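Collaborator request log, item 7. Partner lab (contact: R.S.) asked for a structural prediction of DUF2848 domain-containing protein to inform their binding assays.
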Amino acid sequence: MPELRFTLPDGQERRTEVHTLLNAGYAGRSQEDVAAHVAELAELGVPAPSVIPALYPVAPYLASQTDEVPVQHERTSGEAEWAIVITGAEPEDILLTAACDHTDRALEAHGVAWSKNAGPDVLAAKAWRLVDVQDRLDDLTLSAWAGETLIQQGKLAELLPPSYWLDVLRERDLYAPGTVLISGTIPMVHGVDQFADSWRVELGDPATGETIELAYSVRRLPEPIG
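Returned to partner:
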C-alpha cells in the first residue's frame, strides 16, 4: 500500500497507508454545473451516468504525491479537486488537501471506472485539518491550470461538501484510517485545451491567504513494440 505524507500548518507531519481510494463524480451541488460536466464529457464520447452523484473505487496504489505523470497517449488530462484523507479515529485526524485526478480520456469513452484506474490521483504534500477550516469550507477556492492556462476556477460551495461524503463512507463501512476520497470536479473554462504537458491545482483559503498546491509534468511514454 502506498504511504502518503502531509505537512500541516503547525509543522506536524501526518502519514497514512492508503487501503481505500475513491473518486467521486458528477458531484456538483448545482444541477446546472453537473449538466455542464456531463456535456463536457459527452464531447469526449463519455455517456451520461446512470446515478448522480457517482463514486468509483480506484486501486489504492494510484494515490500519489509526484511531480511527473507518465501517460501512454496524448488524450489524458487532470481535474481540480479536493481530497479528504482519514489518518485516525478522531475528527482532527481528517485532513483536507488539493488533488488532481489524471484521467485517460480515450478510455473514459468506454467506461469511467476503467479510466479512473488508468491514471494516478495526485495529492499535494501539504494539508489542513478539516476541523480547522470547517466553518468556512464553502469559501475555499479551487483552481487549475493546464499548462500555463487557467482552466478551472471556483469555490468548494460548488461541490458536495466533505460532510456528505463522510456520511457515505460511514454508511458503507469505509470510514477508517487509510481511506482517501477525491471530491469530483468543477466545470472547465470552455474552449481551453485540457490536453497539456503539465497540470497545476491550487486549494486556497481567502480568510488566511494560505494555499495548498500541487504541480506535475505529463510525460509521454515511448511507443510500444508489438
